[in-house]
Write a structure and sequence with these properties.
With 202 residues, the chain is α/β, with parallel strands linked by helices. It has one domain (4-200): P-loop containing nucleotide triphosphate hydrolases (Rossmann fold). It is built from six helices and seven strands, in the order H-E-E-H-E-E-H-E-H-E-H-E-H. The chain has helices spanning 4-9, 42-50, 93-109, 128-140, 156-170, 189-200, and strands at 13-18, 30-36, 68-73, 75-82, 113-121, 144-149, 176-180. A seven-stranded mixed beta sheet has the order 1-3-4-2-5-6-7, sandwiched between helices. A hairpin with a 1-residue loop joins strand 3 (68-73) and strand 4. The two termini are 18 Å apart.
Length: 202
């Protein structure tokens, strides 16, 4: 993991948090958002990619990420964004609706957003909320890369089968790609970093 691209993301640092679009950093440069169902491993994926254990806050309790959290990569014009998790988080319905409005506003109106990493637990891919997010990004025409996280929880055969199943479900969409990923073993980290670097033009 001494790949120069990988090392670039080690320099990532927390920039700011926002509860609404107006609080986000200046809408310039390029940023990539990380979205996913609560507890799918979104924050862990960010930490693994940046080789920082505590950059994005993780928790076994779903719904820990409640704001748009921005991280600068090497320079402030290149950013990673941790979005609130969606799905079964044990929070009031009003709070969930607020998160959905925040995510929708961000995806539709953030001009510096160049791509989205959609995080899915490989054991439960393409759930209702994943489909909702895919519809969102399709409407907004945002390039999307899917990380099938926790791939170490399955043997190689079932993991590969799930990967192919998700690819088939995407119907050959040119703007959406998918890969296996594990924060525990480091599987797929170089591939994920290469996509990030390409989209950010680092």
């Amino acid at each position: 993991m001494n790949n120069p691209t990988y090392n670039t993301f080690q320099k990532a640092r927390f920039l700011t948090s926002a509860s609404r679009l107006q609080q986000c950093p200046p809408d310039e440069g390029a940023e990539i958002a990380f979205a996913g169902r609560s507890n799918a491993g979104k924050s862990s994926a960010i930490n693994t990619i940046t080789r920082q254990k505590k950059l994005a806050r993780t928790s076994k309790q779903p719904g820990r990420t409640q704001l748009l959290n921005f991280f600068a990569v090497s320079a402030e014009q290149y950013r990673l964004v941790d979005l609130p998790g969606y799905g079964y988080a044990r929070v009031p319905l009003q709070t969930k609706k607020k998160w959905q409005t925040l995510i929708d506003d961000y995806l539709r109106n953030r001009s510096s957003l160049v791509g989205l990493f959609l995080i899915m637990d490989i054991r439960h891919p393409l759930a209702e909320f994943d489909q909702m997010m895919l519809d969102w990004v399709s409407q907004c025409r945002i390039p999307t890369h899917i990380l099938l996280t926790k791939a170490d929880k399955l043997k190689f055969g079932p993991a590969k089968s799930t990967l192919l199943k998700v690819r088939r479900a995407l119907g050959g969409c040119d703007s959406t790609s998918v890969q296996l990923f594990s924060s525990t073993t480091g599987m797929g980290v170089d591939e994920a970093c290469a996509v990030l670097a390409s989209w950010l033009e680092i």
